[in-house]
Amino acid sequence: MRPTTSLSLSLLSTLLLLPISTLAAFTGEAEADGVKFDFTQLKTHSVVVEHKQDPSVLKSTYTINPAGKIELNKDDKEDQCPDGTQVCMISRLWHGEKPDEHAAQIISFGNVESPKDSEPEYTIMRDEEKKVLGLNITFHGPEYGDKKLKQNAIVKFLCDQEMTGLEEPDKDGKGTNALKFVDYEGDQTLTLEWRTKYACEKPLGEAPAPSQGSWGFFTWFIVIVFLVVAAYLIFGSWLNYNKYDARGWDLLPHSDTLRDLPYLIKDFLRRAVNTFQGSGGRGGYSAI
Q: Which GO cellular component terms are attached (predicted)?
């Protein structure tokens, strides 16, 4: 059965919002109160909202990158948010199937590269039973419009175990978008909801998933040395067997050296001990 994840405004008002801290820039990771959030697997995501303004339609595209800045569109240098923006709104009027040449509105709600605009505040959302419902992030943007209204974007990352957070409708509008527009209150405060399994509770001590990466240099070195030694012993044994009709220890190449190896090591250690012992005691002086 699919867990209930929809939150009404009345329920949200009863949530226990536990403050975590303030960051210079939100890079997709946060941890506090025994809970760790990691949204770095999420990619830049957008949601489009239409408002009818007869005879035209105003289409507003809300874009967010939870792990950093939104990449600039090299083909459209004018109608886009400033470099470093994390949450961006671009509105454009459409007349039938044809949009205006330039955007009607371009609003930035947070910038990872500007100290003034890159101090997002975030809080853990919990219900009355202390269950984690997600992470609430508030991005602060610059002033906009004739009234110089300070822009803010509230992004609610909601726990949904059945959604990765990358879902979006196809070209025909079929499918569910993980990112949802909620409100743009007073032309000042934007609210978005993003449903994802990465917003669910994850204890700090939880073991990471096994790595699927390739072997390191040291591992490959050990494997190669082992294969070389094995090939040397097998080829040498085969050669001694066919050429000298050897048996037992005599099959191994340099069998005499291998048999004497324990005695050689013992003799080396005894000489080393005598050397260290001889260098102390009398400080280099000998009896006359």
A: cytoplasmic vesicle membrane; Golgi membrane; mitochondrial membrane; phagophore assembly site membrane
